[in-house]
Amino acid sequence: MPGTEPLATLDERYSSAQATAADWSDAVTALARAEVYWLTTVRPDGRPHVTPLIGVWEDGALHFCTGAEERKAKNLRSNPHVALTTGCNTLREGCDLVVEGEAVRVSEERRLRRLAGAWEEKYGTEWHFDVANGVFVHGAGEALVFAVAPRTAFGFGKGEPYGQTRWRFTGSG
């Protein structure tokens, strides 16, 4: 997971004259507070697959879970590169965020227990997960857990000033 501050650049082509690059710490706060994220994966035939889901920001990464036979899990078996987005559907206020990275399976039970606690703290007891055999267990179902550490992230500040910030993390392309 990235441990250093990313390089932030403002894309002046898509920003107001008075805009400055947004702070990564503000983006992290927004990522942690968001309740719904949109995950984009790639199907084996190359077509995109987009789905809303819930998740948590922990240890410098966004985490999400999915059943092993769901479309997103199947897609990740052949291509772990993903984009996660969150924000608001307004034009003149708020900030939209895009996190690009690789979805890496989390199976270490101590870490999964910590993440399960974070899910319940954020979303309530309806989202209580037990942990067994390297997965979340909920009722009769099981869910694989994935972490996406940002390689590149984008922030789209809306309203005045408009601003498009790109954050690049060490070693990202």
TrEMBL record:
SUPFAM superfamilies: FMN-binding split barrel. GO terms for molecular function: coenzyme F420 binding; oxidoreductase activity, acting on the CH-CH group of donors. InterPro entries: F420H2_bilvrd_red/Heme_oxyg, Pyridox_Oxase_N, Split_barrel_FMN-bd. Keywords: Oxidoreductase. It holds the Pfam family PNPOx_N. It comes from the Bacteria. The keyword Oxidoreductase applies. One of its GO terms (cellular component) is cytosol. The keyword Oxidoreductase applies. Residues 29-135 form the Pyridoxamine 5'-phosphate oxidase N-terminal domain. PANTHER family: HEME OXYGENASE HI_0854-RELATED, PYRIDOXAMINE 5'-PHOSPHATE OXIDASE-RELATED FMN-BINDING. This is Pyridoxamine 5'-phosphate oxidase family protein.
